[in-house]
Amino acid sequence: MTLAAATTRDDYVATSGQTVFPYTFTALVDSDVDVLKNGIALTLGAGNDYTISGIGAGSGNVTLNVGATTGDKIAIYLDMPIARTTNYQNSGAFLALDVNGDMNKAYLAMQQITTDMQAAIRRPEADPATIGMELPVAADRAKKLLGFDSTGAVEPVSYLKAQEVTILTVDTFTGNGSTKAFTLTDAPVTATLLQITIDGLMQAVSSYSLSGLVVTFSQAPPFNAFIEVRKFLKNTDVIGDITAVIAGTGLSGGGTEGNVTLSISNDGVGADQLASNAVVTASITDNAVTAAKIASNAVTTAKIADSNVTTAKIASGAVTAAKIASVPITVGITSVVTSASVTATVNTHVYVSAATKTITLPASPAIGQRVLITVGNFTDTVVGRNGSKIMSSASDFTMDAAYLSIQFIFTDATQGWVMS
Q: E-strand spans in 121-280?
């Protein structure tokens, strides 16, 4: 038997009830053919998933015992063991049938390997053979992405390139019913890299514009509306190069690229770094402290230890524009991004970035305190009531696709948390 060139795989998308699927290659025994249905291996046999015909004939049919469903993906391919089972003996019979069978098996194996190679990533014939396509050793490619250098050769690429990593910073504002323009602490180069919500509702890009640091809405946000502006920036847009690092200042590293380590003693900021508890223009230059450097723009009671900021420390007129230069401090709702189940604190905006999580409301809330919860397109985020009622109900609340952002405001013991 001669063998024609063939591809040793056939793929189909089934119609409703379809049972017969042809294959177009040669197989020597039934077990040399594998069948997948939607990526799952089927079992050969009349009492199992399928039967096969045409073995040794150059083509045949795979017949499913149960008809397929519309859209099922059926793959039939040659999976012959690469082994030599015929052994010719000295002075023994040298029959054409044996020789042809042995040669056919070798050529079928080469066809099978060729089909596998065609499904693999490989260098095209148009490229010169000098381009290196071999993977680097494990130690060099560990925890890296597969990339290609300027010649097209394989190279490992770090997940985060210092000049390319994108960071998220957040600004929040409160609407007054008339102001349309709001100044950001930092901004990307285009408005399409902003995500803006007003009272938890995502705003269309066409409803605002960006010029420098100023975002302007086509209509003024309503009175007391909570405005959150998320900004996606390249870190070089915000941080820039750090040069001339001086030993002993708490900084190590430096140059025009690479890592720089900042060490601050005494629980973050000590008296030797801020003399007499004074934060002055000489220490923090205009706009030198930005949302990019204070992650998520959040300054919370966890970061300002209890009683650290008191009337005694902020004497009349002691905090002036000269000491806090052009850096306004506003009190508003604090944003928290989480991929885990957490208990929210009052006056926080919790953004849930993973499914099947539980956000527990604060215990023993006071009237008027609030929690804003925003989820991705998940249908299974549970809001735990933590002892208080939710909308007069003594049951937890599950957010679905219709409730992507809900503000919970505590009213009284009867209604508990109401949703707005």
A: 144-148, 154-158, 166-174, 181-183, 194-198, 201-202, 208-211, 214-217, 226-234, 251-253, 260-262
